[in-house]
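Before relying on records like the one below, remember that each one covers exactly one chain. Contacts with other chains, cofactors or solvent are not represented anywhere in the record.
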Amino acid sequence: MRSDDIFGRDFIDIVCRLLKVFAFGFCAVMVFSLINTNSFESWSDVTAVVFTILMVMSLIFLGHNLKKRWIG
C-alpha cells in the first residue's frame, strides 16, 4: 500500500467487484422482468432497456477505472 492511499488494495478490489456484480444483477432483473411481461410494445420499454445497458456499461467502466487508478 502506498503512503498516499486512503483505502487499501483489497477494499478497492472488493468495491470494483461489487460494482460489476450489481451492474450484471440489475441488467438480469430488468431483462427477466421485461421478458415475463412481454412489454416491448412502447417506446418507454425500449428506452428502459437502452438505459439499463448504458448503466451496466458505465458501472463496469467505473469499476475498471477505479481499480486501475488506485491499484495500478
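The first helix runs from residue 9 to 37.
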